[in-house]
What we know:
Elements: E1 2-6, H1 13-26, E2 31-35, E3 40-44, H2 49-58
The structure holds copper (II) ion.
Amino acid sequence: MNFTLKVPSIACEACASTITKAVKNEKPETIISIDVSTKIVTVKTTASEETIRKIIEGIGHTVED
Ligand SMILES: [Cu+2]
């Protein structure tokens, strides 16, 4: 499925890199791109949105509802 998540806690490229690595570590087939200026995470994955959200929250980032 394809979806976007807003992650307001993304402050810089390092945050984006950390999130990308965490998601790919758990769900290697996921294609993820992150716009640091808008804090929008675009995801294409076989996992559910809830799963990806939990991975991002699990490393200390905040996903907007
Ligand atoms: Cu950062």
